[in-house]
Write a structure and sequence with these properties.
Blueprint lengths: L21 H28 L6 H4 L8 H4 L10 H24 L6 H23 L7
Length: 141
């Protein structure tokens, strides 16, 4: 008898169709363990193989190629945020691609309403892109 059932609850066998099979949970558990294993392995290997000698230059903050001691925050000079704006734009448009991949895979099975949702999403991103162009964020000079 399973651990978390009341005496009144009938116990169903594997072929009765009353619940999820253990195989579905095992697949999830295997994927979870593989993901955690890869993450832990990456941290351990980088700790073992990484540089051990800390110098002043290695411990200094890296600000997009700018020396933070002579041209960063707190020095009275303007802090260049252009690199960060471009990085944020990349993230936004990269996430757009991640949202469209499942739509493309299941396009034949989706209702027509999903097509109009995708068009609306693209139009909203297009408005953001036009705004970025007008603000000249992508100009490097």
């Amino acid at each position: 008898m399973p651990l978390f059932t009341s005496p009144r609850t009938p116990v169903r066998g594997p072929g009765s169709g009353g619940g999820k099979s253990i195989v579905q949970y095992a697949n999830f558990l295997i994927m979870l363990l593989v993901g955690l294993g890869i993450g832990i392995l990456a941290v351990v290997v980088s700790g073992l193989l990484g540089p051990k000698k800390a110098t002043r230059a290695k411990l200094m903050a890296y600000e997009s190629g700018n020396d933070p001691e002579r041209g960063g925050v707190g020095t009275g000079q303007r802090f260049p945020v252009h690199f960060y704006l471009v990085a944020m734009l990349f993230i936004v448009f990269d996430i757009e691609t991640a949202f469209f991949y499942p739509l493309a895979v299941a396009y034949q099975k989706l209702p027509q309403f999903a097509f109009f949702e995708a068009i609306t999403f693209v139009l909203l991103l297009l408005v953001g892109y036009v705004y970025v162009l007008k603000k000249k964020v992508l100009e490097w000079a």
